[in-house]
Specification:
Elements (H helix, E strand, L loop, with lengths): L1 E3 L6 H6 L9 H14 L7 H9 L5 H30 L7 E3 L22 H4 L17 H5 L1
Parallel strand pairs: 1-2
């Protein structure tokens, strides 16, 4: 089981909030967080603690964007993955977790520099795409570094 180090770095937020690249003011963040709170169900009463922990009194638009993406990643990907891994461990099954950290070279010119390993970026590496013929590859051009991953 695994996660990427920037699961909500580009693909997901660009669909949810298209203007997020320039940063976000506190009003946009609060509006987005209100929508997230509805997804928390019984845990929504603790949401203020979560937002306080992640955002504090931050007002910088770029930092607010990055913190919101981190919160989204932790809620949607990291926490459920770790929780599921614990269930496997408690059942006596072996479990291995990974964090994929490589930004595929394929995206160097199409994503902002702040985006690291986004959601699903590892798939080509897990499936061996750098070694497939280029007309079949998920990563049509792979660097030597990527072939060694």
């Amino acid at each position: 089981m695994g996660v990427n180090n920037h699961e909500a770095g580009w693909m997901i937020p660009s669909n949810l909030q298209p203007d997020f690249m320039e940063g976000m003011d506190r009003e946009k963040v609060d509006s987005f967080l209100l929508r997230l709170k509805l997804l928390m169900g019984q845990f929504s009463e603790f949401f203020h603690l979560v937002t306080e922990e992640y955002f504090g009194d931050t007002e910088d638009p770029i930092q607010l964007r990055d913190l919101l993406l981190e919160l989204l990643e932790d809620m949607v990907f990291v926490s459920p993955t770790v929780k599921t891994a614990k269930y496997h461990r408690e059942s006596g099954l072996p479990i291995y977790l990974y964090e994929f950290q490589h930004r595929p070279s394929k995206y160097d010119n199409t994503r902002p520099d702040f985006v690291k390993a986004d959601h699903a970026d590892e798939i080509g590496f897990v499936l061996g795409a750098p070694f497939l013929p280029t007309n079949v590859s998920l990563l049509s051009i792979s660097t030597d570094e990527e072939k060694s991953l």
